[in-house]
Prior knowledge:
Elements: E1 3-8, H1 11-23, E2 28-32, H2 35-44, E3 48-53, H3 61-68, E4 72-78, H4 80-85, E5 91-95, H5 100-117, H6 123-140, H7 144-157, H8 162-177
Parallel strand pairs: 1-2, 1-3, 3-4, 4-5
Amino acid sequence: xxxxxxxxxxxxxxxxxxxxxxxxxxxxxxxxxxxxxxxxxxxxxxxxxxxxxxxxxxxxxxxxxxxxxxxxxxxxxxxxxxxxxxxxxxxxxxxxxxxxxxxxxxxxxxxxxxxxxxxxxxxxxxxxxxxxxxxxxxxxxxxxxxxxxxxxxxxxxxxxxxxxxxxxxxxxxxxxxx
Length: 178
């Protein structure tokens, strides 16, 4: 299941959303009051559903789609002018005022969409990705989330699957050792 991250400038709105999600059995991974704290939470999580409550001054939904792609599903709950400012078709929108049932329905739909989009790596692919992350962690002194993000970014930059790029890193490392 994807990690649920709530982001919004108002602490009261974030708390209200956390209570709503908890009442439906959806635990919240992180509550963020700024774009920078949201990005830190996303860096620590391999896959997330972000519920944006209105507009964050230092983070646009379009930028999140661009930076995190298929790793993130985004629900923007805001007044119509804010919704109209968002250009990405990848952002799901709910106009205020809305109901708790509408929010819960949207979250369930995003959970299902997220499950369909997440790549299902086979055992061998998962193992090679983990090996590559370990190599990057040792060589570059990175944390696991940082190594994962770097591997993901490099694979995208080279227009290749993450597992294929990971295999390249593992092969290069074996050549250096051998």
